[in-house]
Amino acid sequence: MARLSIWETPRGRVELPNMAVVVNPNLISVPTNEIREMGFQLIMTNSYILRRRGFSGDVHNLLEHNGPVYTDSGAYQLFSRGIEDQDSIEIVRYQLEINSDVITPFDLLVMPWDSEEEAMRKAIETVERVKEAIPLVREKGKLIVAPIQGGRHPKVRRKCARELGKLRADVYAIGVVVPDLLEYNFKEVVDAIAISKEEIPLSRPCHLFGAGHPMVLPLYVALGCDLFDSAMYAIAARDGRYLTHSGSLRLDEMEEFPCNCPVCYNKSPGEVSGWSKRKREYFISKHNLYSVLLELKRIREAIRRNRLLDLVLERANAHPMLKEATLYSLKRLSVLMEELDPLEKKSGLRHIGPETSLRPEVRRARRLIRRIRSTKSRIYVDPFGPVPIEILKVYPFGQFVSPRETPRLEVDPNSLFRALMEYLYDVRIRERFEFTFSKEGRIKDVILNGERIGSIRAKDHFFVPNIRGARLILEKSEYPRNRVIIKKEAEDFVSRGKSVFCKFVLDLDSELRPMQYVPVVNEEDELIAVGKLILSPREVFDFERHVAVRVKRG
Ligand SMILES: [Zn+2]
Prior knowledge:
By secondary structure, the chain is of the alpha/beta class. It has 3 domains: about 5-330, TIM Barrel; about 340-465, ArcTGT, C1 domain (Archaeosine Trna-guanine Transglycosylase, Chain: A, domain 2, Alpha-Beta Complex); about 480-550, Roll (Archaeosine Trna-guanine Transglycosylase, Chain: A, domain 4), CATH 2.30.130.10. The chain has 21 helices and 26 strands.
């Protein structure tokens, strides 16, 4: 579910996943030019604080930041001052007046003690406020945030997320009960994310309000959150708390800094403790930001290499509650995670313990091996169960890093191809094929009646069909299985080898998975092309301008 994306804001692009650094204009702990130099692109500030001090003008000038500014409505600050409600439109207008780029309507916070009825009233009112604000914000070319409330009431959250989902706002922000974020009550947060992700358009950035500790970021990114914000770097610094990816440390309890960031590398805790309060806070704030930044880089790099879940499972050991939340997440979001998880991976799956069996790759493999009926025998491979011997070289069984070696048996190529087609496409094949082989004896091309129908890819032993291979898949599968059906207007374009964009997809088989090779047909079910599905079926319907199928030439 984790993804890399580019978020287009009115003032430039932001690489996601990312963190909006919260700056309090009354209490600057790290100057914005330094925040920017570190590599952060997005600044968040509270419109309530600005309004209270009577600020008028351009917020970019005030913050000395030319990049995108995201303003919060201040609902939380107002609440802590005992004021529960405000005129939402007035607050939206104020954010537009000060030229903020990302605008938050005044949402009604659901409190831990609110009854379900009261929570529902607040959620519905919040939806109305977003609806009301959309035309105003869009008219100015700015982005609108839809805050998803619900407190600890799953029914309320689902209703709120579903109604907001229909509005197709620009950013979806999950508001959670603040103590849940602060007091290691991760399970409540996981539920809030799961329900929201099930209902909102996956094409929009998903922001988890208020999560800013580097330790929890890998998990929340793995669950599909793209954006975070936090004032925590500064609040923790005031308290002498030094953030790391495995938890918080106290300045007065450290002898050495376990960090080589540009502020820590030549300092010692003893030296820093002797500084003035202001200088000390600046130092820790800056380290805390570096620590967040480093974790974000690790996360993005792990996503590029399909290794984020390895990082999540590694981080889970930092805290028993985090471990519990991680295992709970893998169960709670298993269906959605499997749906969105690419079929093709850059590297082998690592078996590090019982938790590996909860990973989407393992759950999927277990489901797909049940399709195989042509097998002569199966052998037990932990954690997959009985794997047909014909596909032991296929991903993930053949690219599996485990303390116990997966047995490799030689099977005849026709049996392998038959089992592979059952595994990938759930189709039964009775024809006899011929094959070409590499010097090392690996199967290369698959040939039927003297014509090449595709090849077996070296890295994962998957079948890569050409147009004849696609025809074979189609002939063996009933409509609409194993198909992407495109609209008439895209037919000509796609038949010339151009990619299929989401808005031209009429329908597709919901069993298909991202990075799977798939036949592309027209409304009359005639084969037009073959290509690689880039998104999951649900995402194809949520996105418009994104490529759905990258068409293969030749
Ligand atoms: Zn540091």
